[in-house]
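Design job #97: recover the sequence.
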């Protein structure tokens, strides 16, 4: 079965879509069959793999609302073994249309059940909010990956997100296998970045990957050309970082992490996830 991962952070500008696209691309480069789900009505992930959302007649919205099978919406990308379930502006209306529907939190989960067996990894890119779309993405996932910008203000929103994860477990009965974070926009020469890294590694109640994603201009330029970093600047430091992250992600030892670090099921989770 596929590993279903929700890539999320309620703060914008932390590299969430960047991580979704580039991690998915490198997982595919390692021979994994990957589905990237763009679940943000801004459709940045869709644009970043070379598809213009304005030209789409069908998107994840139509599959979510039950109008069409997901197989009819999924598109191949220019990277072998990487497919995308694209988004468009239509998705903005979904939370309003679903508000009175029973089981609305699991609409995406039921949708992905139809196709997840075709993939090794399913990565879900989410909007920068904790609304119904993000709740759907979390309820569809077994794992949560949180990009954490290496700046003080970016860390502030982590407590709200981890509280939401706990609420989903407590009130909806949805258990996560793994909750992890990756430091992004990291500058090793910055005292602030190093201080934030120490605080996050010491206080965050989940697993923090050893790989950090550097601040890089090429990461910001690649989406303009509809390319991932492996296509746009394969020799860059940023590409190398995502290559190592993909290796680390493939080789996650869930049992070791569960036994050696705090996790979402820990009864002291709330205390441990409060950033120092």
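Job complete. Output follows.
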């Amino acid at each position: 079965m596929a590993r279903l991962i929700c890539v999320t952070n309620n703060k914008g500008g932390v590299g969430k879509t960047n991580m979704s696209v580039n991690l998915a691309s490198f997982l595919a480069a390692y021979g994994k069959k990957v589905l990237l789900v763009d679940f943000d009505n801004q459709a940045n992930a869709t644009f970043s793999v070379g598809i213009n959302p304005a030209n789409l007649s069908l998107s994840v919205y139509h599959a979510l609302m039950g109008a069409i099978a997901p197989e009819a919406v999924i598109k191949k990308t220019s990277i072998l073994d990487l497919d995308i379930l694209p988004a468009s502006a239509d998705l903005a209306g979904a939370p309003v249309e679903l508000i009175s529907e029973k089981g609305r939190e699991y609409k995406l989960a039921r949708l992905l059940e139809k196709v997840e067996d075709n993939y090794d990894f399913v990565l879900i890119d989410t909007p920068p909010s904790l609304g119904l779309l993000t709740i759907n993405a979390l309820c569809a996932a077994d794992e949560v990956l949180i990009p954490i910008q290496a700046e003080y203000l970016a860390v502030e929103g982590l407590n709200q997100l981890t509280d939401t994860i706990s609420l989903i477990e407590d009130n909806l009965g949805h258990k996560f296998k793994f909750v992890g974070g990756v430091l992004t926009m990291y500058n090793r020469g910055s005292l602030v970045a190093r201080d934030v890294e120490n605080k996050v590694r010491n206080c965050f109640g989940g697993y923090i990957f050893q790989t950090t994603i550097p601040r890089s201009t090429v990461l910001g330029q690649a989406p303009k050309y509809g390319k991932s970093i492996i296509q746009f600047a394969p020799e860059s430091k940023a590409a190398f970082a995502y290559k190592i992250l993909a290796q680390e992600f493939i080789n996650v030892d869930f049992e070791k992490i569960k036994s050696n670090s705090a996790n979402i099921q820990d009864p002291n989770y709330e205390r441990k996830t409060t950033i120092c």
